[in-house]
Amino acid sequence: MSIETVAVIGAGVMGSGIAAQIANAGKKVLLLDIVPDGAENRSIIAKSAIQKLLKVKPAALMHKRNAKLITPGNLEDNLNDLADVDWIIEVIIERLDLKQALYQKIDAVRKPNCIISSNTSTLPLADLTAGLPKSFTANFLITHFFNPPRYMRLLEMVKGPQTNPEAVATLAHFCDHQLGKGIVKCNDTPGFIANRIGAYWMQTAMLETMRLKLSVDEADAICGRPMGIPKTGVFGLMDLVGIDLMPHILDSMVHSLPKSDAFHAQAVIPGVVKKMIADGYTGRKGKGGFYRLNKSAGKKTKESINLITGDYASSEKATLDSLHPSIAKDLQKLISFDDKGGEFAWSVLSKTLSYSAGLVPEIGNNIEAIDRAMTLGYNWKYGPFELIDKIGVDWFIKKLESEQQTIPPILMAAKGKTFYRFNNGERRCLNLAGEYKTLQREKGILLLADIKLQQEPVKTNSSASLWDIGDGVLCLEFHSKMNSIDPDILSMIDTAVEIIPNQYKALVLYNEADNYSVGANIGLALFAANIAAWPQIEGMVKSGQDTYQALKHAPFPVVGAPAGMALGGGCESILHCDAIQAHAESYIGLVEAGVGLVPAWGGSKEMLTRWMGNPKRAKGPMPAISKVFEIISTATVSTSAAEAKSLLFMQENDGITMNKERLLFDAKNKALAMVDGYSPTECSELSLPGATARTALNLAVTSFVQSGKATEYDGVVADQLALILSGDETDMAELHNEGDLLTLERKAFMSLIKQNKTRHLNVFNIPSKQANL
Amino acid sequence: MANFYAPIDDTKYLIDEFLDTSELSDVSMFSEMTPDLTDAIFEEAGKITESLLFPLNRSGDEQGCTLKNGNVTTPDGFKEAYKKMTRSGWGNLTCSTEYGGQGLPHYIANSVDEMIISSNISFSIYMGLTIGAYNAVEKFGTEELKKKFLPNMVSGKWSGTMCLTEPHCGTDLGLIRSKAIPQDDGSYNISGSKIFISAGEHDLTENILHLVLARTPNSPKGIKGISLFLVPKIKVNDGGGLGELNNVVCSAIEYKMGIKASSTCAMEFEGSNGFLVGELNKGMKAMFIMMNSARIHVGIQGLALAHVSYCGAVDYAKDRIQGRALTGAKQPEKVADALIVHPDIRRMLMTMKAYTEGARALSTWLSFKLDISHHSTDPTKRQQADKLVSLLTPVFKSFLTDMGETVTSLGMQIYGGHGYIRENGMEQYLRDARICQIYEGANGVQALDLVGRKLPAHMGESLRYFFHPLSKFLTQHSDDDSLDPYIQPLSKAFSRLQNATLFIAKKGLSNPDEVGAAASDYLKLFGFVAIGYMWAQMAEQIINNKGNMPDTFYDAKLKTGRFYMQRLLPQTESLLSSLMSGSDNIMDLAESQF
Fold first, then answer.
1. What pTM was estimated for this model as a whole?
2. How do residues A433-468 score in pLDDT, each as one tens digit?
3. Of the candidates B220, B250, B281, which is a domain's last residue?
4. How many domains does chain A have?
5. CB B137 within 8 Å of CB B184
6. A5, A290, B221, B488: which sits with the fewest CB atoms below 10 Å from its CB?
């Protein structure tokens, strides 16, 4: 059975977010909610939820047109429509009576094989299905999404004793392949895995901060990067999630957990926090939280709350001795360090890790699943058991023993060993019986991280490596700082072009960093500009062009497989590939204009070629040229792979993979599919209108400059872009080949970099798209 | 016998003709600097330094300073000379008129300073330190402090010092231990030991004001917890009169290689009462702001000693007869020809002259940039000039003081054995010059400052303000055949500097040791290009637009410039290949192999 249509019941933030992600997968989805009392427009809740989806930041929809896949409705008039859907997700308020009543209604209309799931985070599956017929419970599961559903990769899935294994498999397959989620199967226990451990950790960190009288800045500095946790730390995270949510979570945990559970000791909301909630200081959605931005006197100052007095003061960078890189970068050193930072680190970490270990086997037998839940759900770099391996199992046991702490059984089982072991390229992990079991990746998942355990790179330098990913395909991985394209990466591409024809069949450009590439490292070019080293700069431009041209015309297929940002020179690298297989969350764009430059590693040329060759384009060259001009001069970046297709950064036949773990596999297959009968890409030729087009393009910019919407220098950059796109001094009778366009790119680039205005882009300012719970 | 001639002509030429001061012509302090006025200043400065200070130079070196019962006695004649110099205003040229100073720009004052230093570097130190202390108080002190202390510093009645170094720390001032305990009246009581304090104790003035770096209780660790205090030797009453002693004691003076007439003191502060200058814990910031002018001043010391050594060498080379010219007797009436006929003697004299005059041009040019950074009405110009000065300061300090050592050594060489003995005074210049490479930030530290701090800031933005005008100058004159002997060699040296800069920028990203290993060679390469730029500009101006100096002056300039381009600038080639060889050849030996 496959899932083609879906219904989401409950059009709140979570429900509509889930509906949006299903629409992002290209599936039709019915979004239902109740009819408000006396409402004229009976589907108003779902309808306005869809309107909100179009505006919400970060965007829930990968493409505005996806909103059309969501049909709004209400539970009275549209109940019968549920008969057509393959999967119904219930995302209504956390009240057992309401949920059960709803299930009764659903059961009356649903088709026999329809799967039903609840997004509950607090109610046990056993209670939800009490009194419902076996035909219902066989198709019922809990699917617990994290907010926001588009961006948070974790999906916790809980089945009941009667749930049909086929329903589980069908749904898991759908959520993995179509929704791109990392599925972690959980037991039917309170808070499942991620929130059980996550809430315990947050509470512990908050209470320990107060006990040790640390500032929130100090606490977040420790309980952040040094522990492999996002730099928002714990207080920053609570601000993001909403501080008022904590009492609700604690209530439900306290009610459902046995008295013996260590959670109870940490389930205290301090007075100062209670007062914050009462006063409306609920975090970013409220007046502020543990941090706030004070915008008085025309200045924005970040302030932090003093947990003792409840007053705000300017945030101060934490300066604890334990934060010195020589300590903070070594977890074992940090938790043994003799200051309150070290004490805090040990206290939070030891409690959280032994609590997590103590939950085996209650919340699950598989420690890898627990680690995965924390890394996908809370964006931890390492899960609890990976963290214990990092500090050393025996060291940890010894330290716990010295403090007369009880040692959880799974930790005892690991004594003298590690939780994870790597043998002959296999990842193995320990179970409660003290045995190692090999971890198998699902079919269709191919990870460079796994390949690295098995082999040495074919070639490597400080910024890039070539890996043999099997079947004659090489993978070119960038690993420079921020994956910015530098001379070493270019030389590795040259190497690939040189060695592949003799020994291999195809090439994939792919890496597993957060961002494929943030752009060319223009630092060196800007530096060279400051010392007036013009020939050297032109040489750098030329060598990038030569390398990308060689990639484009190589005698073997090349597939670009970006995930995250692919900007500037990174974008240009995939524009020169035969095909692109992109992760759905790919943010692609030529942002050179943002720093006062134009794309000159063939980016302008490729975009012009794509738009001129677009079969759907209007007559005459101007509409295509204007479109490229608009995209590049405004430094447009796609907010998803779907949008990249509309902008022609990606083309008709390029593919999108929803699940990041499946990207390399898909890209490799795409490359292999092109091997038979492959002939190198031919050089394209264009006829361009020349000076008149340049004038026309400039005309539009002039009005922006005059009205103050663009600076005068923006006008200069736009004019140089117009020079390239118009073909300079030419007319339609003349044909421009790729070399001609590259010459124009260089000319424009050099003219701009010689001016004193080139700005240094803050490429490291990555928008935060994460939230939790 | 060594002699000193103030470089009046060269200074006049640089100020009146070479320097384009139009950039500040809208500021009255600068528009008032007409040649009539400035020429008179230089002539007077020349007279007084030649007649008053130079005669005390040798005797001061022989006699040195003495310490008895905590009192330091300066050499005979110093006290009277100090009175004369300060009374006639030579000690306060750049001080504000508000406090009784002359309010002159740096580019004028620095030319006068060069003459003072040439004639007697030890003597100049007493005056220089007072200016340093004045600048700190003037820039960072409260109105009350300024009123109380500045007028007497400006008039020369009181002098000043800078107390930074402690027995266990010099370069790394974050380690400072001296303590400052806050008092109820808002003042502080300072305790601690300071060493190497120039002019820390002497008999030239009735009071001495020490600017002391110290830390207050519970201040942050390291460099961020250091504050600056003004601590008088004798307490000053509210009325301005002198009160009781302030427990500031000179416990020892150093016996040194050179600058013997300058008293270098070990100072003990024991609960000495002082006043905060600037913000608490921001003492290093104040120091850094004053560092540019202080380091430029030390660079000028290198220049000044080079010049006075050249004066002595020229006299001797013309007087001393020894051997015959290789091409036949030049003075057949005598038993031998003058030294100056010999090519190798000339090589040395030309080297001295080319370095010295090039450095003087750079000094004047850079001093004017310093003025722009302070006084331009355009904030962008101020900022850009400040970046340029900050970039060039380590180059100037190191290159000119290294040059000072080279030139004073050549001056001694020309005298042969007569240079090595004390009687003729030539070896004193070399001994005096040697300290300039060490103090105010050792030259190796300057090189690190250049490559580690100045180069990388804002993707090399500071470099732009030097490289772009130079690049433009070269492009502008690349077709001018008459300038070929200047433009061609400079172009080559400039591309070497560009390549070296890019090399360091690239290496800096991966391996800091590479940058450290390249630093000193890079700074030298930079210095050669900077002085080459000055020579090329002088040549261009003389060839295309001659001024009012005698023809022989211009002729000599062009020929000396050509010597610089052909004989000295080529060193850039070996410096480039040396620094490009990487750090392995420096770092590979294990510590135990040394």
1. 0.83
2. 889 999 989 899 999 999 998 899 999 999 999 999
3. B281
4. 4
5. no
6. B221
Q: What pLDDT score does B293 carry?
A: 81
Mutate to test the interface with B, among A462, A490, A530, A540 (most CBs of B within 10 A): A530
Q: How many helices (H) and strands (E) does chain A have?
A: 31, 25
Same domain, A237 and A272: yes
Q: Which residue of B has its CA nearest to A525?
A: B459
Beta carbons within 10 angstroms of residue B257's beta carbon: 11
Here the tokens at position B77 are 């004649």
Supply the CATH number for residue A73's domain: 3.40.50.720
Give the catalytic positions of B in this structure: 440
Q: Of the residues A409, A436, A463, which one is the last residue of a structural domain? A: A436
CA distance A709 to A706: 8
Residue-range definition of the domain harbouring residue B227: 54-88+120-281
The yes-or-no verdict on residue B20 having pLDDT over 90 is yes
Amino acid sitting at position B41: I
Number of domains in chain B: 2
- Do residues B160 and B211 make contact, with C-beta atoms less than 8 angstroms apart? yes
pLDDT at B594 over 70: yes
Report CA-CA distances (Å) from B545 to A219, B141, B541: 69, 47, 5
Of the candidates A773, A525, A576, the residue with the CA atom closest to the CA atom of residue A684: A576
Query: Both A623 and A698 in a single domain?
Result: yes
Length of chain A: 773
Nearest Cα to Cα of residue B340 among B351, B355, B324? B324
- Tens digit of pLDDT for each residue in B163-218? 999 999 888 888 999 999 999 999 999 999 999 999 999 999 999 999 999 999 98
Q: Do B460 and A319 touch (CB under 8 A)?
A: no
Q: What gap in Å lies between CA A336 and CA A322, rounded to an integer?
A: 9
Within 13 Å and on the Cβ side, how many CA atoms surround B570?
Answer: 5
A539 occurs within a structural domain = no
Q: Do A531 and B458 touch (CB under 8 A)?
A: no
Up-side HSE of residue B458: CA atoms within 13 Å toward CB? 11
Residue A482 at interface with chain B, using a CB cutoff of 8 Å: no
Strands B264-277 and B248-253: antiparallel
B384 interaction partners in chain A (CB closer than 8 Å): none
The pLDDT tens digits for A691-718 are 999 999 998 888 888 888 888 888 999 9
Q: CB of A536 within 8 Å of any CB in chain B?
A: yes
Token reading at B35: 């040649």
- Evaluate whether B505 touches A529 at the Cβ level (below 8 Å): no
Residues A49 and A124 in one domain: yes
Among candidate residues B222, B253, B281, the one where a domain is terminated: B281
* Interface predicted TM-score (ipTM) of this complex, two decimals: 0.87
Judge contact between B121 and B301, C-beta under 8 A.
yes
Q: Between residues 545 and 584 of chain A, which touch chain B (CB distance below 8 Å)? A: none
- Print the domain residue range for A699: 593-636+682-773
**Nearest-by-Cβ selection for B467 from A524, A531, A536:** A531
Task: Say which CATH number the domain at B161 has.
Answer: 2.40.110.20
Q: In the 8-state DSSP scheme, what is residue B18?
A: I
Of the partner residues B220, B463, B499, the one whose CB lies closest to the CB of residue A530: B463
3-state SS class at A602: coil
Q: State whether A532 and B468 contact (CB < 8 Å).
A: yes
Q: Please report, as a single letter, which amino acid is at residue B450.
A: L
Please give the structure tokens belonging to residue B323: 């051997």
pLDDT band at B509 (very low <50, low <70, confident <90, very high): low
Same domain, A340 and A391: yes
- Block residue for tokens 């040649």: B35
Q: Are B506 and A524 within 8 A, CB to CB?
A: yes
Query: In whole angstroms, what is the distance from residue A557 CA to residue A681 CA?
Result: 9
Q: How far, in Å, CA of B533 to CA of B561, rounded? A: 10
